[in-house]
Amino acid sequence: MQSGGQVSAITHEVQTFTEYWKDRRFASKKPDRTVVPDNFYKPVGNGLFTWQPNLVHGPEAQDRDTGGLNVLVFDHAWRFGAFGPVMPEGFGLRMNFGRRGERVADLTESEWRRLETWLNAQPQVTVEAASDRKSSPSCTPRALPGSSQPFSRPT
């Protein structure tokens, strides 16, 4: 997915950057295994890691990519690109202040079905199923965030 794209997703699991790098389930998402990786921050010890060369995000994306506390593993994801639809206010899931502080909500079955129907009805949508999860010459070490607790914003 290109930077700046809109995504709606169901979080299946939360991992630290180190857990994600070491998890065998996501080894195929490393730069040496695919042309569209998303597992490219390698732990190098002492709470540091390095960006691994890849065609998805350059080293300038490191601060944004690692600005959260954890890696979110999605069960399903709807990717709309940079000019995706505006989420209707009625769902209570709109993010108005950028990508950090992702919205977290427990939906009833009927709320979920209504949201899923809306997501699936949008043009140019790509639905990524659980089986497809995604989750430069110089590499600069950077400290990992200190806490392993996921951030969640009240809904």
UniProtKB/TrEMBL annotation:
Q: Where is the composition biased (Polar residues)?
A: 146-155
Against InterPro entries, the record matches this protein to: Nmad2
Region described as Disordered = 126-155
Nucleotide modification associated domain location is 12-124
Q: What is any Pfam family matched here?
A: Nmad2
Name the source's superkingdom. Bacteria
In its UniProt entry, what is this protein called? Answer: Nucleotide modification associated domain-containing protein
Q: Which species expresses this protein natively?
A: Pseudomonas knackmussii (strain DSM 6978 / CCUG 54928 / LMG 23759 / B13)
Q: What is the lineage of its organism?
A: Bacteria, Pseudomonadati, Pseudomonadota, Gammaproteobacteria, Pseudomonadales
